[in-house]
């Protein structure tokens, strides 16, 4: 496919305009001369149809949940129901101005308030803020709250304990909030090594941050014991709840000792993500931390909703205005559509689907922690690497030829050659069976014709990219050939 610049023909136009007949000074006479171009910009010159085809074809180069199975572990690429978009797009919601007074925005405030209440109930917390714009931003907010709490007790403390199976954003967020992260080991079951946790707990520890389910897709069944240990040192228990998809209606983290948790609306609650689009990472806290939540707080008195800025202990704002509220509206629609037993069924099916894939594939791909997983399973390409010299990267590239978005690879970091597969509950058994068949086919190809797998992809416009160079030395500007 040619670049739009390569399709350019000098003088070609996509539209015809009548000659300029406005009386008075021309635009270039109105603007200060230092801002005017001395020679015209080098823009592509194409006809309208060429333009439309170019961008339509470019848009088809993308892989998304709406066209392919997208089992990207840890990311929950579930289907985003279109009714979310329709309702979030209603003029009464999209045309609000953030400076409008409470009395003219009662409907939106009610939606936000109710979403807050649903999230509170889902995780068993006492207070929720909707402000943070993403999961990592939620971690930042939660840790700021934790810091404010410890400061109020007289000592902010110094360290945050983070197991090696945590999400990579956790240590970064701790550092951002002025804490040094300390790594805690996992045991042979993939859970927190309690002996290592005990060794590190003392009065300098501000919090433990636990990703649940962890990045091995496992639920740590020692959670109560962990909470008790953390609390006995005067520290707080932060749960990274980005992957709450696995436990809706099954576990309320607030009831098993969690003090602070963030939700990823753009994972669990089916709002779009990827491509850097807006997300939402609300944070829930237990009662003693509620006064520290960001302002404004959305309040309900009788049947009136209002924004309350008078919270003297609050950490302040973490986002302009009230958060990405149109993302919150989508999550609200999703929760309402699944009211009743629906949310619990979401988690049951997410867990069932992941275990189905794992049980069908573990005869072909090594499974380092062979036990019941939650919403995602971690396999590896170790068998293929040792027997045939085929790496996990090759397997992922080969999946592209079969029309799939590859799963997450080489993460979690504690698993060699890992393949982290998250099917989500929105996929049918037929889709999973087709994917399983293709994965088995690739395992067979690795044994019988390893070079075929190592040379993949064959069906894409580009083959293997230098990913390090692409990140470190991006070449983003087209320069005309001399
Ligand atoms: C995705 C994810 C995050 C980060 O969320 P963002 O919205 O990408 O900032 C944090 N923790 C876990 C476990 C995640 O899966």
Structure description:
This protein has 3 domains: 1-61, no CATH class; 96-337, Type I PLP-dependent aspartate aminotransferase-like (Major domain) (Aspartate Aminotransferase, domain 2), CATH 3.40.640; 342-471, Aspartate Aminotransferase, domain 1. Helix content is 36%, strand content 11%. It contains 17 helices and 12 strands. The chain has helices at 27-30, 48-59, 82-88, 91-94, 106-123, 135-152, 169-176, 194-200, 223-232, 265-268, 325-337, 342-361, 382-388, 392-401, 429-448, 450-454, 467-472, and strands at 127-129, 159-163, 180-184, 205-211, 236-241, 260-263, 283-285, 297-301, 304-308, 377-380, 408-409, 418-421. Bound molecules: pyridoxal-5'-phosphate. Residues 74, 134-136, 167, 169, 211, 240, 242-243, 264, 279, 281 line the site of pyridoxal-5'-phosphate (PLP).
Which properties best describe this structure?
about 475 residues, alpha/beta, Aspartate Aminotransferase, domain 2, Aspartate Aminotransferase, domain 1, 3 domains, 7-stranded mixed beta sheet, 3-stranded antiparallel beta sheet, 17 helices, 12 strands, globular, binds pyridoxal-5'-phosphate
């Amino acid at each position: 496919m040619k670049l739009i610049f390569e399709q350019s023909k000098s003088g070609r136009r996509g539209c015809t305009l009548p000659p300029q007949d406005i009386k008075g000074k021309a635009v270039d006479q109105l603007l200060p001369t230092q801002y005017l171009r001395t020679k015209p910009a080098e823009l592509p010159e194409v006809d309208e149809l060429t333009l439309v085809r170019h961008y339509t074809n470019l848009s088809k180069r993308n892989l998304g949940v709406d066209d392919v199975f997208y089992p990207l572990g840890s990311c929950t690429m579930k289907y985003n129901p279109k009714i979310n978009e329709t309702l979030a797009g209603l003029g009464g919601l999209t045309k609000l101005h953030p400076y409008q007074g409470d009395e003219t925005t009662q409907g939106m405030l009610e939606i936000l308030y109710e979403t807050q209440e649903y999230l509170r109930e889902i995780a068993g917390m006492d207070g929720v803020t909707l402000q943070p714009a993403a999961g990592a931003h939620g971690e930042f907010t939660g840790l700021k709250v934790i810091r404010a709490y410890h400061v109020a007790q007289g000592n902010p403390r110094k360290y945050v304990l983070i197991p090696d199976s945590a999400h990579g954003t956790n240590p970064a967020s701790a550092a951002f909030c002025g804490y040094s992260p300390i790594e805690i080991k996992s045991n042979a079951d993939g859970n927190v090594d309690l002996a290592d946790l005990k060794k590190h707990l003392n009065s300098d520890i501000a919090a433990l941050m636990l990703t649940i389910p962890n990045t091995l897709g496992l639920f740590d069944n020692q959670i109560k014991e962990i909470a008790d240990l953390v609390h006995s040192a005067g520290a707080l228990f932060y749960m990274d709840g980005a992957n709450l998809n696995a436990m809706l209606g099954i576990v309320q983290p607030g009831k098993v000792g969690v003090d602070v948790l963030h939700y990823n609306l753009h994972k669990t609650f089916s709002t779009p993500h990827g491509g850097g689009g807006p997300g939402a990472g609300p944070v829930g806290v237990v009662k003693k931390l509620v006064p520290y939540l960001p302002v404004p707080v959305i309040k309900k008195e009788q049947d009136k909703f209002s924004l309350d800025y008078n919270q003297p202990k609050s950490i302040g704002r973490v986002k302009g205005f009230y958060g990405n509220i149109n993302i919150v509206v989508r999550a609200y629609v999703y929760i309402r559509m699944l009211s009743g037993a629906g949310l619990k069924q979401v988690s049951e099916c997410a867990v069932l689907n992941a275990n189905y894939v794992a049980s069908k594939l573990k005869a072909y791909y090594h499974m380092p922690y062979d036990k019941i997983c939650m919403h995602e399973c971690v396999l590896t390409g170790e068998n293929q690497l040792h027997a045939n010299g085929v790496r996990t990267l090759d397997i992922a590239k080969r999946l592209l030829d079969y029309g799939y978005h590859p799963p997450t690879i080489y993460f979690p970091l504690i698993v060699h050659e890992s393949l982290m597969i998250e099917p989500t509950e929105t996929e049918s058994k037929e889709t999973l069976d087709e994917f399983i068949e293709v994965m088995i086919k690739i395992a067979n190809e690795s044994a019988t014709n390893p070079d075929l797998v190592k040379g993949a992809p064959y069906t894409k416009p580009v083959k293997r990219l230098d990913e390090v160079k692409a990140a470190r030395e991006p070449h983003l500007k087209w320069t005309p050939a001399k």
